[in-house]
Every structure is written in structure tokens, then in C-alpha cells.
């Protein structure tokens, strides 16, 4: 195919990617955005296969078949509650694919020699080695993130105070390997050392990061995978891969910054630190809860809901763990059929990945318009008759506003405590990811509905039906 025609098709693909990302910014247009992005990728793949000399189209077909089979099985079998783990795996596979491209390019040049020379060779080798570094860190870091999310590894930070210096040392060692490989013929040993150091760096970067910071990690690893893909595009001389990788990398960084702002934390603090330790003046759980927590029953809570004109449901990771999204949707439908206005208040970092709660509620066919952001919800809590909190702990904790000694002080939260009545659905008084007691549980306007989230909501819905 003519080079100009190929680049025109690549430009069309890039435009479809941009339109796809734009569509993903709103729930109603997200399916169309997904379709446009998928069409852009199809165009890019077809044009690339027609443009490049392919060793074996049979192998390409086999790869497409295996990929389609694995993707279909994952889409069918992976629960929506496990979507964060799936995203972590996909991020890692993206990094691994970029590593494979870089390795193939490097060893091909070692065996056959490179046609480039001088500055051109320097740029080509630099692109290869940066792809190795970023792709490998993404691969191993995503593997650790998956293990933490799947609870194969503990969710709390794993490491020690000096680990940041180890990470810095590993990074400097990796950069030293890159410099040596780029400027001199080191061969296989230097390449293997770079891959090994990068693998360790990915592990040590993510290990000290706790579960509360997982939304930030997922977004950042997504950005890494995009940057690795863009670097692989430079290696292959493929413009559309460079553009698509840059788009993913940039959008991932933007999303990471949004997540950090939602937690009132800096990216450096997330990557090289952990939740600050509470100072000596921080409130203890016994002081918060002793004699102040009021337990309730589904029948008693249904009495609050019978005359409520406005109810706000606040979903959290507890809802995901209990797989209670369908039961929550049924409760919302029951209330709406009684003439109650029902909305869902969603904190940006509720759950274990950006948009986790939105995905779960959409899977349960909750109306997109009923899902409100923190900025939309907070001004209206004072006008809310009943706020129902399902497993959302840290993002509703008033200590973020009131306790300067708290590790989460300054983090924007959902102001559910301003509602006339608050119902907290939880198995126990156990703390959230930040490991802090929640004074909300002991407020005069709050009651606890203890039990499994799904069963408690189903019992509450049944009580409402009986009252009717």
C-alpha cells in the first residue's frame, strides 16, 4: 500500500481513538465511545497487516483466535466485582507485550545487525531500552496489584521505611544498564540484567502501597502501559501505535491526578510513602464508639424510609464484596415506586479502581442519571431524609474534616452526616482501608444495620413491601 494512504488510515484510526475517549467521559455515550475506539483499532490492525511483510498470516490468525477466545472467556466468567483485578491483568499484559516487542527488536539487531548508525542508532536503542524498563515495571507491578486486589497478598502496605531508597537505587541501576546498553555492545547479559532489575523495581514500587491507594495505582499502571506502547511504536516505526499509546499514557496520568486530588494526596506521597501515621492526639475506636452506637433492624429502618421524600444511597467496596448491587437496585426501584426520589452518591475513590461503583451499578441497570458525583451530592445532603451507606467507610469519615491528627485529614468526603437520618449497612464496626474508626457510626442521627450487605438490603426491601 502507498505510504500516504497508510498514514491517512492511521490518521483515521487516531481520530476514532480520540472520539472514543471523548465518548467514555459520559455513561450514556460510553458504549458508542467503546465502539468507535474498537473500530479505530480494527482499521489500524487491518492496515498494518496489509502494509507490513508478515512472516505467516496463519500465525496471525491463530493469535487472533486465541486472543478472541481468552477475551470472551474473561468477559463471560469474570464477575463485575472482580473488574479491578481484570484491569490490573490487562495493564500487565500491555506492558508484557511492549517488552516482547523490545526484546524481539534488540535480539534481531544483535543477530542480524542494525541498518541504522550514529544518532539514528542511538535513538533506536534508547527507545528499545526505555520500552524494556517501562514495560517490565508495568508487568511486574500489575502482577503485584492483582495479587493485592485478589487478596493473594495482604492489602496493607508491605515494606519498611527505607524502601524508597531501595527503589531509587534500583531505578538508578536500571538507568545505568540502559546507558551501557545504548552506548556499547554489552549483549545478552546486560539486557537480562535490565529486565531483572526492572522486574524487581515493579514489585518493590507496588508492594508498599496499601489498598486505600489502589485506585491511584490502577490508573498509574494504565498510564505506564500506554507509555510502553508508545515507545514500542517508535521501535516499530508505527505511527498509530505511538498515537494510541500516547493517548492512553496521557489519559492515565490525568486520571491518576484526579484520584490523588480526591484523596488529598500527592502522587509522590502515594508512590514513595503510605498513609501518614496518626499522631498521639488521634481518636481511638473505643472513645468513638463506646455506648454511642445504635443498632437497628430492617423493620425499624423501613419506618424511616416510608415517609422519606429523598433518599441517597452511598455505595462502597462493601457493596462490591457482598455483590449487593442488584439488591440495591431493587431497593431503589421499590422506593421510587412509592414516590421517593432516589439518588446514588459516588465518591471518586469508592471501591478499588476509578469508576468501580459506576460499573457495578450500571451492571445492575441503575439509571445513569441517578448516579451523582461527590460535587453534585454534597450540597444536597442537608435536604436528604435518609442516607444509606453500604460499605463506604473512609470516604464518609468525618475525621477527614474534623480531626487534624487523622491520616485522612483534608481528604474530600461525602457529607452524609448532614442528612436527617443515616443508615450504615456493615457487618461490623471494623475500619476501612485507612484503619481508622468512623465517628459517623456514633452520630445521633445514625443507626447501624449490621449484617451481610446483600441480605440486609434484601430484608429492608421486603420490610418495605410488607409495610405497603
| Elements, N to C (H/E) | HHHHHHHHHHHHEHHEHEHEHEEH
Structural class: alpha/beta
Work out the number of β strands.
6
Mean pLDDT: 85
Helical amount: 55-70%
The whole-angstrom Rg is: 25 Å
Description:
This protein folds into 3 domains: 1-77; 82-272, no CATH class; 285-467, TPP-binding domain (Rossmann fold, 3-Layer(aba) Sandwich). 61% of the residues lie in helices and 7% in strands. It contains 18 helices and 6 strands. The chain has helices at 3-23, 30-51, 57-77, 83-112, 118-149, 163-183, 188-206, 214-236, 239-263, 267-272, 285-289, 298-306, 317-322, 325-337, 356-363, 374-377, 399-402, 453-467, and strands at residues 310-315, 341-346, 371-373, 386-390, 421-426, 446-450. It has a 6-stranded parallel sheet. Helix 1 (3-23) runs parallel beside helix 9, helix 4 (83-112) packs antiparallel against helix 5 and helix 5 (118-149) runs antiparallel to helix 6 (163-183). The model is unreliable at 275-281 (pLDDT under 50).
Amino acid at each position: 500500500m502507498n505510504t500516504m494512504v497508510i498514514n491517512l488510515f492511521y490518521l483515521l484510526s487516531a481520530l476514532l481513538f480520540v472520539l472514543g475517549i471523548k465518548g467514555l467521559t459520559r455513561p450514556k455515550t460510553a458504549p458508542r465511545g467503546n465502539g468507535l475506539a474498537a473500530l479505530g483499532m480494527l482499521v489500524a490492525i487491518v492496515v498494518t497487516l496489509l502494509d507490513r511483510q508478515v512472516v505467516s498470516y496463519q500465525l496471525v490468525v491463530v493469535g487472533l483466535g486465541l486472543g478472541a477466545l481468552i477475551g470472551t472467556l474473561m468477559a463471560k466468567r469474570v464477575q463485575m466485582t472482580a473488574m479491578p483485578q481484570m484491569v490490573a491483568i490487562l495493564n500487565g499484559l500491555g506492558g508484557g507485550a511492549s517488552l516482547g516487542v523490545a526484546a524481539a527488536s534488540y535480539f534481531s539487531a544483535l543477530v542480524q545487525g542494525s541498518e541504522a548508525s550514529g544518532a539514528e542508532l542511538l535513538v533506536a536503542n534508547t527507545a528499545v531500552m526505555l520500552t524494556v524498563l517501562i514495560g517490565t515495571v508495568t508487568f511486574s507491578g500489575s502482577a503485584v496489584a492483582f495479587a493485592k486486589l485478589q487478596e493473594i497478598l495482604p492489602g496493607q502496605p508491605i515494606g519498611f521505611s527505607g524502601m524508597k531508597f531501595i527503589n531509587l537505587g534500583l531505578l538508578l541501576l536500571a538507568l545505568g544498564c540502559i546507558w551501557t546498553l545504548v552506548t556499547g555492545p554489552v549483549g545478552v547479559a546486560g539486557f537480562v540484567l535490565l529486565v531483572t532489575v526492572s522486574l524487581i523495581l515493579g514489585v518493590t514500587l507496588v508492594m508498599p502501597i496499601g489498598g486505600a491507594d489502589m485506585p491511584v495505582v490502577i490508573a498509574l499502571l494504565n498510564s505506564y502501559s500506554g507509555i510502553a506502547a508508545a515507545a514500542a511504536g517508535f521501535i516499530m516505526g508505527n505511527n498509530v501505535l505511538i498515537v494510541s499509546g500516547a493517548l492512553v499514557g496521557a489519559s492515565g496520568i490525568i486520571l491518576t491526578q484526579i484520584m490523588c486530588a480526591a484523596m488529598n494526596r500527592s502522587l509522590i506521597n502515594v508512590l514513595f510513602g503510605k498513609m501518614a501515621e496518626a499522631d498521639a492526639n488521634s481518636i481511638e475506636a473505643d472513645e468513638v464508639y463506646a455506648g454511642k452506637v445504635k443498632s437497628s433492624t430492617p423493620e425499624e429502618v423501613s419506618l424511616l424510609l416510608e415517609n422519606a421524600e429523598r433518599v441517597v444511597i452511598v455505595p462502597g467496596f462493601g457493596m462490591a464484596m457482598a455483590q449487593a448491587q442488584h439488591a440495591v437496585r431493587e431497593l431503589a426501584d421499590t422506593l421510587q415506586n412509592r414516590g421517593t426520589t432516589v439518588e446514588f452518591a459516588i465518591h471518586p475513590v469508592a471501591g478499588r479502581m476509578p469508576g468501580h461503583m459506576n460499573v457495578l451499578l450500571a451492571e445492575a441497570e441503575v439509571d445513569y442519571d441517578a448516579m451523582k458525583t461527590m460535587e453534585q451530592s454534597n450540597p444536597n445532603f442537608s435536604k436528604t431524609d435518609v442516607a444509606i451507606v453500604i460499605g463506604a467507610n473512609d470516604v464518609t469519615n468525618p475525621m477527614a474534616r474534623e480531626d487534624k491528627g487523622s491520616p485522612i485529614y483534608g481528604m474530600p468526603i461525602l457529607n452524609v452526616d448532614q442528612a436527617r437520618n443515616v443508615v450504615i449497612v456493615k457487618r461490623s464496626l471494623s475500619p476501612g482501608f485507612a484503619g481508622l474508626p468512623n465517628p459517623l457510626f456514633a452520630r445521633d442521627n445514625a443507626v447501624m444495620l449490621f449484617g451481610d450487605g446483600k441480605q440486609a438490603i434484601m430484608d429492608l426491601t421486603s420490610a418495605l413491601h410488607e409495610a405497603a
